[in-house]
Amino acid sequence: MYPDEFEYHSADSVESAVSLLAENPEAELIAGGHSLLPTMKSGLASPDALVDISGVDGLEGVERDGDSTRIGAMTTYAEVADDDQFWEDATVVAETAGEIGDRQVRNRGTVGGNIAHADPASDLPGAMLAADATVHVHGPDGGVEVPHEDGDTASGYVKKPSPSSGYAMVGVAARLTLDGDSVADARVAANGVMDHGTRLSGAEDALEDETLDADAVEAAGAAAGDDLDEYMVMEDQQASAEFRLQLLSVYTERALEKVGERAGAL
Ligand SMILES: Cc1cc2nc3c(=O)[nH]c(=O)nc-3n(C[C@H](O)[C@H](O)[C@H](O)COP(=O)(O)OP(=O)(O)OC[C@H]3O[C@@H](n4cnc5c(N)ncnc54)[C@H](O)[C@@H]3O)c2cc1C
To answer: Which residues line ligand 1 (CB under 6 A)?
Structure first.
């Protein structure tokens, strides 16, 4: 299908993007176009105008600053996943970026677009929650700031991908900080289960101050869905809510096993 007619504007700075949006209240920003264009072509969205931010200086790339890394909104997933230092500093974000879609999607889709679009099955929202990332909006220094992991911290991501698109039917991101054998801090988050990326406080509570062993991992998997509103769990042609909650338990365990092995605890 073809999209409805629209005006096209190209922004060369954040300020010009902001003023073009103010002048065209029905306009949408376009970044990688990998979510917006399909929705326009299928008639689900028909903005009057597009404001293209691909030419805005300073929005692309990864920049390290002390104990965190800033990712520009226009940075592609491939740039993040192919950055070896990112695997050292914030494994869960690099690993998740490398799991998105296929090579074509990773070469085009942007970190800013993924977070702004916030599809329930998107991979990055859960990873950003687990990594304790900060999203900065507006301004030439805008982007996503990801704190670096210290020597006692390990992280990772696993997902059950949709066989057709690669989107997460269920994805679980985890970051654990250990104090000796026990878990001093746990951040566990999921994609694809609710209508937005969600922290799994049931799993986090089951882990904190516990020795990180197989029993703790099993208990965290069993508690993964405890604090979720069961009436809000996603249900579609791919999986019932009940099956999604089973997947959530299994994939929480798998994420924690991966992180535990990386931490040398399992
Ligand atoms: C075949 C296929 C498979 C895919 N598989 C996956 C997958 O496995 N996992 C996954 O997570 N995603 C997947 N995607 C989606 C892909 O990751 C998109 O790239 C992403 O959802 C949107 O990023 P984008 O840069 O393409 O944004 P666009 O499509 O350009 O924009 C999406 C929305 O975000 C807004 N937006 C974009 N940038 C900004 C910004 N900087 N500030 C504010 N608003 C902004 C736009 O106005 C628009 O409303 C897939 C897409 C395709 C086509």
So the answer is: 28-36, 38, 73, 100-101, 105, 109-110, 112-114, 116-117, 119, 122-124, 165-167
